[in-house]
């Protein structure tokens, strides 16, 4: 356990609301010369870490007199330093194109994929210092699959998206927007500071999350090594591919439907585009599909209940809004309630729309 000093930085209260696990993003590149791609990634990543050195640090348990289960960002341990920031693996008998055509459908299949292509496992010893992130360039006959594993307590999906954008700029020698991310640790301090002004303290209730450990938030030191396999056995995953053009069509249709209701019931009367996102549309689409499945199960007396939840980005919902370039965790899980608007849905018209956008 780390004792706070000038070299460490406590994670924010919101950072502590997510599990102590690693997520992995995979980016595919079809290339005529994969080796040239590897060299570009190496140079770009070196530039990125020089610009944002805290990305090479660790997340580690820390001591706090007022709270349990506190973690901090600190200099990397010797064990972390032994793991290269970028590993290069060669699979010259494998093809990026064939990988893109393959969809894993179970947690066990995802686990096998990550063990082969990801830089870090989903779960590491929770009592030890852990890297913030690591990369692997999986070199194949027709390109590269670049994988990035990141400690979820240090960043959320939006934050990692920001890092990947910066990496792409560094690979192209276009360092236009690296500056703002240098203030990331200062922004974390503002979220955690009791002296923060009232306008910037909407997250104080998240201090409650420094309480007795939950299953996936703070894995038992005796069971963490089997946690990944245990989670995989209980998880089914499905990948959907929906072209952005179809998402835009659905977004426009949803906006039109919501605006057509009386002013008193219209949540979109002031700023329609600010309230309908692609995530909203895709979540609604999934909810409708599940609702139709439930109706079919009721008819066959084979009822299985379900809950739909999605992750909401809180940056723009802060008062005042938090910078979009913030890398740390600023999200919350939102449960989707069944909207009364479903009573207005005309099934034949829905079928026509689905056919028009190619979702039938």
Write structural notes for this entry:
- This protein is an alpha+beta fold.
- Helices cover 35% and strands 15% of the residues.
- The protein contains 11 helices and 10 strands.
- It has helices at 34-51, 78-81, 96-100, 107-117, 157-171, 184-192, 224-233, 244-259, 272-275, 278-299, 347-357, and strands spanning 9-10, 22-30, 58-61, 71-74, 86-91, 130-131, 133-140, 143-151, 309-313, 331-335.
- The chain has a 4-stranded antiparallel sheet with strand order 1-4-3-6, with helices on one face.
- Strand 7 and strand 8 (143-151) form a beta hairpin.
- The longest helix is centred in the last third of the chain and has 22 residues, at 278-299.
- The protein is globular.
- The N and C termini lie far apart (54 Å).
Q: How do the strands and helices of this protein lay out in sequence?
A:
Layout: E1 9-10, E2 22-30, H1 34-51, E3 58-61, E4 71-74, H2 78-81, E5 86-91, H3 96-100, H4 107-117, E6 130-131, E7 133-140, E8 143-151, H5 157-171, H6 184-192, H7 224-233, H8 244-259, H9 272-275, H10 278-299, E9 309-313, E10 331-335, H11 347-357
Parallel strand pairs: 5-7
Antiparallel strand pairs: 1-4, 2-8, 3-4, 3-6, 7-8, 9-10
SSE series: EEHEEHEHHEEEHHHHHHEEH
In angstroms, what is the radius of gyration?
23 Å
Mean pLDDT: 77
Largest sheet composition: 4 strands, antiparallel
- Return the structural class: alpha+beta
* Share of helical residues: 25-40%
How many helices in DSSP terms? 11
**Shape category:** globular
Strand order of the largest sheet: 1-4-3-6
Quantity of strands, as a count? 10
- Indicate the low-confidence ranges by residue numbers: 196-217, 266-270
- Termini gap: 54 Å
- Beta-strand content bin: 15-25%
């Amino acid at each position: 356990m780390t004792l706070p000093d000038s070299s460490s930085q406590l994670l924010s209260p919101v950072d502590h609301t997510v599990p102590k696990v690693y997520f992995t993003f995979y980016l595919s590149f079809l290339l005529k010369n994969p080796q040239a791609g590897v060299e570009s990634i190496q140079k770009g990543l070196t530039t990125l870490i020089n610009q944002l050195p805290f990305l090479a640090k660790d997340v580690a348990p820390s001591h706090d007199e007022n709270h349990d289960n506190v973690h901090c960002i600190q200099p990397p341990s010797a064990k972390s330093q032994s793991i290269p920031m970028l590993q290069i693996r060669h699979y010259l008998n494998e093809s990026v194109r064939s990988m893109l055509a393959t969809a894993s459908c179970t947690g066990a299949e995802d686990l096998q994929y990550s063990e082969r292509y990801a830089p870090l496992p989903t779960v590491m010893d929770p009592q030890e210092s852990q890297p913030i992130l690591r990369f692997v360039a999986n070199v194949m006959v027709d390109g590269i699959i670049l994988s990035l594993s990141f400690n979820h307590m240090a960043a959320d999906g939006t934050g990692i998206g920001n890092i990947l954008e910066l990496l792409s700029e560094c690979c192209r020698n276009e360092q236009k927007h690296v500056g703002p991310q240098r203030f990331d640790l200062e922004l974390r301090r503002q979220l955690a500071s009791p002296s923060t002004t009232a306008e910037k303290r909407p997250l104080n209730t998240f201090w409650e999350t420094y309480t007795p450990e939950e299953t996936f938030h703070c894995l038992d030191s005796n069971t963490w090594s089997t946690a990944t396999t245990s989670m995989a056995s209980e998880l089914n995953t499905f990948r959907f591919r929906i072209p952005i053009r179809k998402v835009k069509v659905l977004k426009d249709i949803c906006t039109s439907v919501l605006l057509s209701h009386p002013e008193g019931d219209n949540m979109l009367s002031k700023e329609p585009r600010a309230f309908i996102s692609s995530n909203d549309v895709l979540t609604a689409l999934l909810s409708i599909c599940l609702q139709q499945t439930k109706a079919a199960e009721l008819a066959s007396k084979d009822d299985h209940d379900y809950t739909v939840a999605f992750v909401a980005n809180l940056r723009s919902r802060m008062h005042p809004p938090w910078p979009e370039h913030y890398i740390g965790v600023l999200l919350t899980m939102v449960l989707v309630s069944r909207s009364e608007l479903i009573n207005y849905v005309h099934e034949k018209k829905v079928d026509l729309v689905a056919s028009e956008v190619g979702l039938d």
